[in-house]
Specification:
The protein is mostly beta strands. The chain contains no helices and 10 strands. The protein has a 6-stranded mixed β-sheet with strand order 2-10-9-4-5-6, with no helix packed on it. The chain has a 4-stranded antiparallel β-sheet with strand order 1-3-8-7, with no helix packed on it. A hairpin with a 6-residue loop joins strand 4 and strand 5. The termini are far apart.
């Protein structure tokens, strides 16, 4: 079974930063494109950032210049550094491969940006 566990979310003020971490149960993901997705209340899940096994990155327009995705193959983790957060970033954040496989969704981690 594939297991993805997200952590690092929380409550942060506008302009603040958070670093999210995704841990997976197997090193197989080191060879897969992976991404961070988010789903805000009342909205569909969207891809925020992605990273291939050879280091190519892609970001949603809303995240460019503020978010940075990275991975540590040895530790089987995927991270998302989020800076200059705004209330529009409030959502549950998930990791998955790209394109996502529905069965792989984990619990996600809640990010709330509010003063």
């Amino acid at each position: 079974q594939v297991q993805l566990v997200e952590s690092g979310g929380g409550l942060v003020q506008p302009g603040g930063s958070l670093r999210l971490t995704c841990r997976h149960s197997t090193i197989v993901f080191s060879a897969n494109p992976m991404g961070w997705y988010r789903q805000a209340s009342g909205k569909q899940r969207e891809l925020v950032a992605s990273l291939t096994s050879v280091g190519r990155t892609n970001y949603a327009d809303s995240a460019k210049g503020r978010f940075s995705i990275s991975r540590d193959n040895a530790k089987n983790t995927l991270s998302l550094q989020m800076n200059s957060l705004t209330p529009e970033d409030t959502a549950v954040y998930y990791c998955n491969i790209v394109p996502a496989i529905d069965a792989y969704w984990g619990q996600g981690t809640q990010v709330t940006v509010s003063s």
